[in-house]
Amino acid sequence: MQFEDLNITEPLQRALIKEGYSTPTPIQAQAIPHLLKGEDLLGIAQTGTGKTAAFVLPVLQRMAETQKVAAPGVPRALVLAPTRELAAQIDESFGTYGQFLRIRHAAVYGGVNQGPQVRALSRGVDTLVATPGRLLDLMDQGYIKLKDVEFFVLDEADRMLDMGFANDVRKIVSALPKRRHSLFFAATMSREIDELAGKLLSDPIRIEVAPQATMVETVEERVFFVDQKNKDPLLLGLLQQRCLNRVLVFTRTKRRADRVASVLSKKKIRADAIHGNKSQNQRNQALNGFKSGRLRVLVATDIAARGIDVEDISHVINYDLPIDADSYVHRVGRTGRAGAAGTAYSFCAADERELLREIEKLTRKKIGEMAHRYHSQEAKNAVGAAAKPAARKPRSLSRSPRDKREKGTERSGSRRSRRPHHRR
């Protein structure tokens, strides 16, 4: 099947050809015909399956067909994303695929000054991609009204709920018109996700392109049993191999991401870290450096890595195993994208052994062991309390849960004190 077989219009086909795309992925082939008919959709798809184009292309085509003009601050299409990076990536896709259409697009997210975003809204945008916190800020200030939204997309809904945005999503949805075309995407299904989809969608088509927690077949997975103290020398040893040419390293905490990036930099390995405590400009600089090849290694936390859409990542390395087994699937999905080959290495210390068992239980697959000079038999055989991470210290109660969640992420950079009274 080719894109032209999906009744994609000529301007969109021209953009696809220019970008080197001719054959749709399974989710694109299954979703686009239903979306062009205006049917609501529930899509279950892991990262790297092409789901962004699966909704961007039909939304652009249907918007172009109606030829409406968006009023200032009143978008016709709204896409909600959990992180800044994912919002920016989706907005970029609207620009790429819509380059031969007269469609205006913008993204709004926290961590940066809202001024340029407000100016873009004032000129009128057809498609708006937003993180929940910044969107609510701009709605409160009167800069955005959702009364004319025709197309609503909730992307990575499972991560949205994991990050605590459920109430924000419900508040945003309550401001949308009842009559709209709604699309809902998640990598995994849970009872909470199913309940939310039931409230947002009307008689939806359900598409699941891969069973839940199934790994990409083109990714080779290996585990290294290693003591915590030997993780740095193990990582440095692996990076001596030239085949590890574009490497995404995952750590469990922001502090460790910075430390690992510093260790690599001191050894003349071009590396940087990306996480929630970095400013948006710092995050953009690191991500652009990784995309361009200036950086060989990008060290990231799970939340910051959402939306990292970089071609040809040769290796994903789990320096720390994730607490949540689902996150392992998302991490590994950053390599082996679009049918390309990829490799995922996981470091497992004694206090992570139970986490590895949970990952193998979820994926229904035993990860092959890799022999190496820092092998730890203690890590491999750990059981009971010794196989579990130490409990985290309780967080400060000085801020509300909402403040904690959004500090330095979605709502940072808002300027309520300057809002004009006439915009209320």
Automatic annotation (TrEMBL):
One annotated GO molecular function: helicase activity
**Basic residues bias: where?**
414-424
Which branch of life, at top level?
A: Archaea
Say which species the protein is native to.
Candidatus Methanocrinis natronophilus
Keyword set includes Plastid: no
Instruction: Report the protein name in the record.
Output: DEAD/DEAH box helicase
Motif mapping: Q motif: 1-29
The residues covered by the Helicase ATP-binding domain are 32-207
Q: Which residues form the Helicase C-terminal domain?
A: 238-378
UniProt family annotation: Belongs to the DEAD box helicase family.
Disordered: annotated span? 373-424
The record's InterPro entries line, in alphabetical order, gives: DEAD/DEAH_box_helicase_dom, DEAD/DEAH_RhlB, DEAD_box_RNA_helicase, Helicase_ATP-bd, Helicase_C-like, P-loop_NTPase, RNA-helicase_DEAD-box_CS, RNA_helicase_DEAD_Q_motif
What SUPFAM superfamilies does the annotation carry? P-loop containing nucleoside triphosphate hydrolases
Q: Cross-referenced CDD domains, in alphabetical order?
A: DEADc, SF2_C_DEAD
Q: Where is the DEAD-box RNA helicase Q domain?
A: 1-29
Keyword vocabulary terms for this entry:
ATP-binding, Helicase, Hydrolase, Nucleotide-binding
Q: Enumerate composition-biased segments (Basic and acidic residues).
A: 400-413
